[in-house]
Amino acid sequence: MAKSNKQNKIPSARKPMGGHGPGMGMHGTGERAKNFKKAVKDLFVELKSVRLQLIIAMLLAIISAIATAFLPKLLQEVLGKFKLFFFPNAVINDVFNQILKLLIFLVVLYFGVMIVRIISEIILNKAGQKICYNLREKMRKKLSLVKLKFYDDSSSGDLISRVITDADTISSNLQTLLSNTIISIFLVVAILIFMFTMSWQLTLLVLGILPISLGLSLLVMLMGQKHFKAQAKGVGEITSLCEENYSALRVVQAYGMQGKVADEFNECNSRLVKNTRKGVIFAGFTMPIINFINNFSYVLLATVGCILCLDKIFAVDALLIFLQYSSNFNQQIMQLTQITEQVQTTAAAFERVSEVLNTENDTETLEPISKENIVGKIEFKNVKFGYSEDKSLMKDVNFVVNPGETVAVVGKTGAGKTTLVNLLMRFYDINGGSIMLDGVDIRKFSKSFVRKNIGMVLQDVWLFNGTIAENIAFGKPDATIEEIEDAAKKAECHHFISTLPDGYNTIIGEDGGNISVGQKQLLTIARALLTNPQVMILDEATSSVDTKTESKIQVAMNTALQGRTSFVIAHRLSTIVNSDKILVMENGDIIEAGTHKELLKKNGAYAKLYNSQI
Q1: Which of 3, 379, 414, 495 is least surrounded, with the fewest CB atoms within 10 Å of its CB?
Q2: Quick one: which of 211, 193, 213 has its CA closest to 203?
């Protein structure tokens, strides 16, 4: 059965991610948001949920910035006091007491700045975690509301990455960004004010050198960017290659393709080493160049400052403090330039999260009606359906199933059997015609009502991490142990559960590794029977069990399904010969319908399928 061509798949903005190689922390992975402005705008909207924390953090940042900027000025005051020792009339004890008081105040101020920074970090950490929690909760709710087609067209790994990795990236990056950006901006402003009050000439010189310093630093970073992108891509490629080949190792060995796989690995590994080497070289260039520029500007500033001191325009102690201000100023500016990469990464991650949150919900088109008891009459009237608008799968499907009847649906792989029951479950809505449940179009019922009254056992076995009792009671959490055991007996799995050391309290993992495939299938059948639905769908429910177990299930199911309308999809036609009606499907449409004997007499498609198996 051909499905959608995946036109509606969420676009993936994530590049392959690898470990943090040399320089990766500074340069990132080259990930960019497709619509940067919109992503940042939406991110600011999300920040409204933590605006109180941000306001408090901003006030603390202002206090910290002013105090930090004031520290060198206080140090200058201490140096000035030391000059008094050289005055003839100086009272040593008084001078010493003054210096001691200033030093104590200096230590207290440093300690206060530290405490303010710690409090600010704690507040921003809580704000970041709250945003992460909110985003994941929003995605959880959204993913429970979207159409099933959304999952058909999306990669499960990509969705998990958006919910876990991208949300965590936003949280951690925001904490760093907000902390560094707020403090750096206010500190730059405060330092500039102090620098201008000390010497406007030297301050202008610092601002004049700044564009050259920034320009060269950004040039080196941009030159190395393409190599870091290639490095990140290479890590993703080699990881994917290893995962693919090691998971399919038996196939590789069976076809004798070890040599080809080794060649592919060596080629991929060589590219990664080449790009990593270039990235390391540029990463090694960056800091020495930045340090050279800073040191050059420091020497130039010191030289001009000394000239001013010789001309009695500037004092030596003031020059030392000014040089400290200049160094701190350049440090904060470089920190702000390096923040841009984190902003890009955060915007890209938030854009990927937003794509999930902006996905269309699977909404009800009509106000749902309620019905207390379902009898179980099913009727398909001129049903038309296609997974994509330009390609129709079902053109005109018509049949009636009376209450209590068992209908088997057969056909070759891709004939549309599973699609038929998916439409009945309203996993997809039809494009034309109607599906009637007890004479009412199922679109008039809510989807939850339809699924509550129709039990389904799939070919794919899904168990959850928990006890056997919890897995059976998944659809009815308030079920008693007696009800759980009764459902297990009907599904012929009570005996094997009783032989387990902990019985119904036996813990099974997500893959159910401690029980067999057939036993897993029996548990899913028990899970469906526990909800006591009026309509039951068995989609290849016995395909994973042996013949002996299958016969036991058939006996149990015949008893359990009495009085229920049931749809059975089966490839082994020997299991459905006693069905009240058999529908033969081909290319999405029903080409034959009747009992086993009637269809054999026709000597058509069903007879060929049956005789080929016999």
Answers
A1: 495
A2: 193
**If DSSP codes are grouped into helix, strand and coil, which group holds residue 571?**
coil
Is the pLDDT score of 47 beyond 70?
yes
CA–CA gap between residue 159 and residue 500 (Å, rounded)? 36
- Assigned token pair, 196: 């201008």
| Residue-by-residue DSSP string for 315-336 | -HHHHHHHHHHHHHHHHHHHHH
What pLDDT is recorded for position 379? Answer: 93
Q: Minimal CA–CA distance to 294: which of 266, 329, 320? A: 329
Token representation of residue 375? 């009898």
Q: How many CB atoms lie within 10 A of CB 203?
A: 21
Per-residue CA distances from 297 to 253, 287, 305, 327 (Å): 63, 15, 12, 9
Q: What is the pLDDT of residue 32?
A: 59
Sketch the domain layout of the chain as residue ranges. Answer: 24-357, 378-613
The correct answer on CATH 2.115.10.20 for the domain covering 378-613 is: no
Q: Are strands 581-586 and 589-594 parallel, antiparallel or unpaired?
A: antiparallel
How many Cβ atoms sit within 10 Å of the Cβ of residue 101?
A: 12
Q: Indicate the residue type of 342.
A: Q
- Ranking 244-248, 262-266, 463-467, 587-591 by mean pLDDT, the lowest is 244-248
Q: What are phi and psi of 21, to 5 degrees?
A: -75, 180
Q: Please name the residue that has the structure tokens 């799939």.
A: 458
pLDDT on residue 401 = 92
How many C-beta neighbours within 10 Å does residue 433 have? Answer: 17
24-357 CATH: 1.20.1560.10
Distance CA 142, CA 360 (A): 9
Compute the distance between CA of residue 135 and CA of residue 203 in angstroms, rounded to an integer: 45
Measured distance CA(542)–CA(519) in Å, rounded? 11
Q: What is the pLDDT of residue 400?
A: 93
How distant, in Å, are the alpha carbons of 210, 585, 592, 598 from that of 601?
92, 18, 12, 5
**Measured on CA atoms in the order 282, 287, 288, 291, is the torsion positive or negative?**
positive
For residues 404 and 560, the answer to whether their CB atoms sit within 8 Å is no
Structure tokens at 187: 């500190």
- For the record, the structure tokens of 433 come out as 């015609």
Say how far apart CA 65 and CA 59 lie, in whole Å.
10
Tokens of 169: 């990236």
Q: What is the rounded distance in angstroms from the CA atom of residue 43 to the CA atom of residue 410?
A: 51
Type of residue found at 440: V
Give dist(CA 502, CA 98) in Å, integer.
78
DSSP class of residue 442 equals G
Distance CA 424, CA 111 (A): 69
Beta bridge partners of 411: 585
> pLDDT at position 409, please?
92
Residue 147 to residues 157, 359, 361, 456, 510: CA-CA distances in angstroms? 18, 9, 6, 18, 25
DSSP 368-379: PB--S-----EE
226 contact partners, CB below 8 Å, separation of at least 6: 30
Residue 407, SS3 per DSSP: strand
**What's the pTM value of the predicted model, to 2 decimals?**
0.67
Residue carrying structure tokens 């904490």: 175
Closest C-alpha to 375, from 537, 562, 538, 535: 535
